[in-house]
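Quick one, probably user error.
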């Protein structure tokens, strides 16, 4: 049983005539997001590397957010998640978001501990 795929992206803001043109549109979007990431990684603007949010540089937050945007969009469009029921959509989308948030929390907490150990000096234990 075949059904027609939706030929629009960004919740209907951009519509395409065929599947081929939609694939090219998605490729262009993902290429632009990747180009922004690469450009920021090469130039490393001082305003983004000098300012911190929750203990991490703004540039790192931008990389994390753009990577999540790409992952979400790939799942939404290429895995046809948009055509599924809302409960399955939420289960697939929100679970990784919570896991990534938890991972970020763990990494920040541990990195702060390691930083303080190096900053304050080592403590040698004699057994």
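Nope, works fine. Designed sequence:
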């Amino acid at each position: 049983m075949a059904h027609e795929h939706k030929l629009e992206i960004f919740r209907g803001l951009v519509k395409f005539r065929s599947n081929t043109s939609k694939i090219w549109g998605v490729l262009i979007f993902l290429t632009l997001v990747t180009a922004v990431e690469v450009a920021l990684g090469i130039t490393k603007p001082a305003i983004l590397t000098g300012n911190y949010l929750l203990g991490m540089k703004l540039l790192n937050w931008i990389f994390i957010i753009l990577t999540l945007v790409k992952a979400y969009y790939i799942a939404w469009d290429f895995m046809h998640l948009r055509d599924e029921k809302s409960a399955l959509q939420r289960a697939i989308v929100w679970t990784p978001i919570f896991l990534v948030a938890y991972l970020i929390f763990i990494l920040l907490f541990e990195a702060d501990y390691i930083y303080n150990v190096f900053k304050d000096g080592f403590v040698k234990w004699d057994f």
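The first strand starts at residue 8 and ends at 9.
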